[in-house]
Amino acid sequence: MKTLFKKLYSTLDCSSPINANLISYYFSLVNSSPNCKHLRHLHARLLRTSLYDNVVISSRLVLAYSQQNHLVPYSLSVFFHMPQRNIYSWNIIIGEFSRSNSPLKAIDLFLHMWQSSDVRPDDFTFPLVLRACVSSGLVKLALSFHGLCLKLGFERSLFVASAMVFMYVNFGKIFDARVLFDGMPKRDAVMWTAMLDGYAKHEEPTLGLALYREMIDAGVSPDWVVMLSLLLMCGLSGWLKHGKSVHGWCVRRSLGMELNLGNAIVDMYLKCAVLTYAHRVFNTMNQRDVISWSSLILGHGLSGDVRTAFELFQNMIAEGVKPNEVTFLGILSACSHGGLAEKASLCFEMIGDYGVTPELKHYASMVDCLARAGLLEQAEEFVNGMPMEPDAAILGAILAGCRVHNNVEVGERIAKKLIGLEPEKCGYYVLLSNIYAATGKFDEAEKVRQVMRGKNVSKVPGCSSIESECWLSSSAKQ
Question: Which residues form a coiled coil (predicted)?
């Protein structure tokens, strides 16, 4: 590298026309700079030569500083001191900020380009800006950019349309995303994947699997990203047969048990209550992170396998993996199903030791554990000391415990709060009535039933779902 520098210094004449070979040399040097110090030396040399006027090299310098984690101030400073800027330059700086922790700056740069320069956006610019809107949660601004895309004639661009589908999906507007998707005469794999991911994340597995069949019929080959969405949908619906088909597809394509895919397969088997398969996949994974461990702990915790859940937790700590909020939710769930109220209290106190802030779901698990153990007064006291308002699920756990342990006093107080929160919910009336009936207070039980009839509140019949036919296309078995 030093030899190449000496050659450039000896051959470069600042007053001579720009040599194409020298441009290529400098571009290569900027592209392969090992650190920021090396890059700054190159930057200084470019400033002393006419090569800095070359928009390609100076733009590449902007990108190189960003890749060295110096987006601010170096990349931004270089960009605004460039002798000339084109859409290639603007796309680089907007894209780097769009992918950074400062997506709002990407939007500001786009608006600066639009208002203060003659450079107009292309179909690579809008996906970057829409991504920044998603990261910033700016729904109205994103819709405005959609309108601008239509005004400038970019509505048929695959890049822009895929970005808009992604944008609508992330804002929870699945219907709008599908309308946009259906309106495209051509669709690439990115657009299909974005739409499938939207159905998976917003719990629409039936629509997602129907879209997958359309994708196969259109001749688009699925990849491991599509498999992630399918695994999520199979787990949500408990479709074990379909999940096995997807797992088999991954094995036949020799994708291996990489982290994301392995975690998705483990999660699918856990949600389908097949813990043996989940363990088997977990053990074959080349790499495991906190998500891998936490999913397995939560699965065993929800199934009531306390011993295995705590063994996994201890092994996780021994391997140096720091637990997160899901890990502790799994441990508390295990304690709840095992009736281990004291152990749950110790685990709850341990949450802060690992830098995790207890959330409402952790308080709910703790209350559920106390209620199942019959410690109803303690559970009520715990709820009163919570830093946030309890929701219906937390209070409902106490009321369910009152029904099991026939505690009328606490049951009346909790039922009154629940009926105040959700007066149309029939389950609270039924539980309170059953508590009265179990303790021989039949008159009070009948009064509750009369209140239900007066408010026209009736119990909805329960229902179950079973897996009866295979939805996946035969291509998933190839």
Answer: none
Characterize 363-390 residue by residue with b for buried, 16 or more Cβ atoms within 10 angstroms of its Cβ, and e for exposed: bbbbbbbbbbbbbbeebbebbeeeeeeb
Supply angle C-alpha 51, 55, 58, rounded to 5.
70
Which pair of structure tokens corresponds to residue 280?
């088997």
Amino acid at the residue 108: D
Residue 203 Ramachandran class (φ > 0 left, ψ -120 to 50 alpha, else beta): left
Which residues neighbour 203 within 8 Å (Cβ) at sequence distance 6 or greater? Answer: 236
Report the residue count for the chain.
Answer: 478
Domains (ranges, CATH) in the chain?
375-457 (1.25.40.10)
Q: d(Cα 113, Cα 125) in Å, to the nearest integer?
A: 11
Question: If we measure between CA atoms, which residue out of 322, 247, 254 comes closest to residue 278?
Answer: 247
CA pair distance 281, 164, nearest whole angstrom: 36
Q: How far apart are CA 177 and CA 180, in angstroms?
A: 5
pLDDT at 111: 95
d(CA 323, CA 355): 9
Asked if 379 and 370 touch (Cβ cutoff 8 Å), the reply is: yes
Tokens for 72, please give them.
Answer: 């601010």
- For the chain, how big is the Rg over CA atoms in Å? 30
Q: Helix, strand or coil for residue 395? A: helix
